[in-house]
Amino acid sequence: EIHTNEKEVTEKEVTLHLLPGEQLLCEASTVLKYVQEDSCQRGIYGKLVCTDFKIAFLGDDESALDSDETQFKNKIIGENDITLHCVDQIYGVFDEKKKTLFGQLKKYPEKLIIHCKDLRVFHFCLRYTKEEEVKRIVSGIVHHTLATKRLKRLFLFSYATAVHSNTPTNPKNHTVMFDTLEDWCWELERTKGSMKYKAVSVNEGYKVCERLPAYFVVPAPLPEESVSRFQGHGIPIWCWSYHNGCALLKMSALPKEQDDGILQTHKNFLDGIYRVIHRPPYEIVKTEDLSSNFLSLPDIQTAYSKFKQLFLIDNSTEFWDTDIKWFSLLESSSWLDIIRRCLKKAIEVIECLDAQNTSVLLVEENASDLCCLVSSLVQVMMDPHCRTRAGFQSLVQKEWVAGGHCFLDRCNHLRQSDKEEVPVFLLFLDCVWQLVHQHPPAFEFTETYLTVLSDSLYIPIFSTFFFNSPHQKEMNLGREGQDAHSTPLHLLTVWDWSVQFESRAQALLQNPLYVEKPKLDKGQRKGTHLKHQRQLSLPLTQSKSSPKRGFFREETDHLIKNLLGKRISKLINYSDELQDSFREFYDSWHSKPADYHGLLLPHIEGPEIRVWAQRYLRWIPEAQILGGGAVAMTSRLVGMMEEVRSLQEKINERHHHQTALPAEAPSLLRSSARLSSLFPFALLQRHSSKPVLPTSGWKALGDEEDLARREDEFVDLGEV
Fold first, then answer.
1. What residues are paired with 121 via a beta bridge?
2. How many helices (H) and strands (E) does the chain have?
3. CATH 2.30.29.30: which residues of the chain?
4. pLDDT at 283
5. What is the model's pTM?
6. pLDDT tens-digit series, residues 395-423
């Protein structure tokens, strides 16, 4: 439950609600907030404030937000609120020239532009604000968002200290946190891996390695003293077991040494480790070195930096000016290619586990970035439990939080190093979105769930994404308060969605099209039933490419091949033997009906990897389709489901009055004609009045006759 501090700052009818522990730092009155889609010509007046948690604009034109239509409202972050950690860049406009703001300012801008990490763009005019207030608010915002911070000064600790609550986790939330030995033993039993692997407590108290969790799983014959020899480096750590006995393992590489004696010691140690995991009952193990033959972190960082610029649009004019070259800019960013490479690498690992009955050992320098990404994708594709909400959340806890992914550094929450800021977790969510988009009935959660999860990376009242390791979290909690009688801090977990959303809004995180695993009668054949399930859900699936047509479909448009084919061919650069093996496995799976409760593979051909429109385009009104898009199809299907449900109720009334029926679908989905394709984030956005093709576009294309002669050169790609 979110508490509201009694302290309130009031101007006219507008009230600033402060969270417990939140303090007002500076404010400015008579600030004009521009309307983005109106080329910065109109706006609303109000007060701009900065606290130690957020930047907030308090306008007096917020009556529309109280409409009953706006059910998807965050209880912590308002529409005009920006958490300090969500600020990406700040620009000032001086004499109509836009300049980046940082450090100590000698001159103060007449306009302030804030680019956010969730891709919102805010414009504030300061011409009518008092000079002293301009200095205070601009200096305050620049300092509190861009200056280097200390961990203990994060609002996370202020909030936890002020709340003084030791509220247990929501009992309805079945997320496994993987912070106890019992959690790991439970996961071993669930995946039938307990015969070959064991949970160990050798790192309890983090006396062996601060990078590893207190508890983890290793091969059963491995001596515990081996774990501590090189501080956890060179040790195969268990991630997951497949039903055929194969396992997915990860290892942090031993540090590179120049000394021949040390190198020989390392080699002897690794030889001993490999002998353990290659002996029966263990399957053959294939080593996959992600540091040498896969993506690099700078690749990901560079690609996303280019990619996000496509969506940080200052106004409608800028949007339409870039529209004509949008696909070229998208391709040059390489972000979709990186997603494709990640999915392809996961499928290669799956082929080893499933088709070759071979265990896979992922190796990386610290096994905390690309190892987390690939191992998580493999489990989402192979384990239907990870496609439920509780299972997916447990997966994130296991592979990312307990696995030691450096969220603090990778999200640059402390602003200590821009070079360390790499959106690895966001890349993972984008890859999962591709799967959700291609196989909707296989997932219990929606794309909206993934979008709000990505937003939660920047909300510093949840501990989930604000530490580099479990050790760092425990050390900072343990030192809070020297008084022996003081109550330990209770930090919230992001998985309790009631903190951010009312129950009606939470319904939009649950997929009404999810096909639950059927409960089979003893005499019923499983294969027949699954085929029937597939027939029921055919309208929801994407068209499959025939394996006879090779890696590219023959009917793929010539232009798409020209745009995407050359770049893809560079990425698919492995030996002919591996290519043939991969192709056979990939095409064989896609030639059969999908089992939503078994192995699930994505299409990775050029046009199948798409832009996650809901996350990246939701703040751009011009990108909306009013009454259309995926939400319109979902709305129709939900309507059909409710009709079936109603008929089922009538049947049940005649037979024993049974009432155990599925939960009702979100009511907001029932009126698709009034919804935007970017629902639920763009429900009230204004529709753009700009032409479909901008004036500059017509000039570039020539006159109508010339356009007609060249019409074959252009195709409607639909969704990217």
1. 115
2. 24, 16
3. 24-147
4. 78
5. 0.84
6. 999 999 999 999 999 999 999 988 999 99
Query: Tokens representing 312?
Result: 């940080």
Q: How far apart are CA 379 and CA 240, in angstroms?
A: 8
* Bond prior to 298 in cis (omega within 30° of 0): no
pLDDT band of residue 664 (cuts 50, 70, 90) is low
Distance CA 204, CA 200 (A): 9
What are the tens digits of pLDDT across the range 501-542? 998 889 899 998 898 887 655 555 444 433 333 333 333 333
Nearest to 461 by CA among 7, 15, 179, 51: 51
Q: What is the DSSP string of 548-596?
A: GG-SS-TTS-HHHIIIIIHHHHHH----HHHHHHHHHHHHHHHTS---T
Contacting residues for 429 by C-beta, under 8 A, at least 6 apart: 450, 453, 454
Q: Hunting for tokens 């007046």 — which residue is that?
A: 45
Q: Is the peptide bond before 213 cis (omega within 30 degrees of 0)?
A: no
Amino acid at 526: K
* Mode of pairing for the β-strands spanning 111-116 and 14-17: unpaired
Selection from 190, 242, 188, 244 nearest residue 219 by Cα: 188
Tokens of 380: 């989402």
Tell me: domain 24-147, CATH 2.30.29.30, correct?
A: yes
Could you tell me what percent of the chain has a pLDDT over 90? Answer: 52
Which residues, in sequence order, are CB contacts of 574 under 8 Å at separation 6+? 582
Element spanning 546, H or E: none
Coil vs helix vs strand at 259:
coil
Q: How many CB atoms lie within 10 A of CB 227?
A: 22
The region, left, alpha or beta by phi > 0 then psi within -120 to 50, assigned to residue 30 is left
Task: Give me 202's structure tokens.
Answer: 């050798």
- Please compute the mean of the pLDDT values over residues 84-89 and round it to a whole number: 96
Can you tell me the distance from the alpha carbon of 69 to that of 109, in angstroms, rounded to the nearest whole number?
A: 37
Helices 335-354 and 424-438 pack at an angle, to 10 degrees, of 70
